[in-house]
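Entry 14. Structure prediction run on the chain below.
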Amino acid sequence: MRQQNKITSLAICAAIILLFCGCGKNPITEFSADNWKSVEQDQRYHMLEDLYAKVELIGMSADEVEELLGKYSISHEAYLSDEGKYDYHWGYEVRDDWWEGCEYLLINFKDDIVVDYELEYGSEL
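Output returned:
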């Protein structure tokens, strides 16, 4: 009887672990414009490494970025502390985790050309 209780407890623990780990679902890690636009926004972070390896964002026009990545999630004018470095930035949501919060790929533009990009948490925007 004790052995059966141990097995039952282990089975329940394994089921809970699988439930919280996505049941073995493999995220899309290969970047393409179609993949980026087709996945949930909060799953895009799986593609960031491949995006950085395949695409030179710096020097792209705003139109090229929008064609590649679609419509941005957020947009802000440059903060006073950043004035002169860039005119505005677009943010693409790449993760929305209940533990870590929202994370964005921020693309900074000067004269409608990408001059820089970085990852930022939503709480820092």
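The first helix runs from residue 2 to 20.
Filed with the rest of this week's runs.
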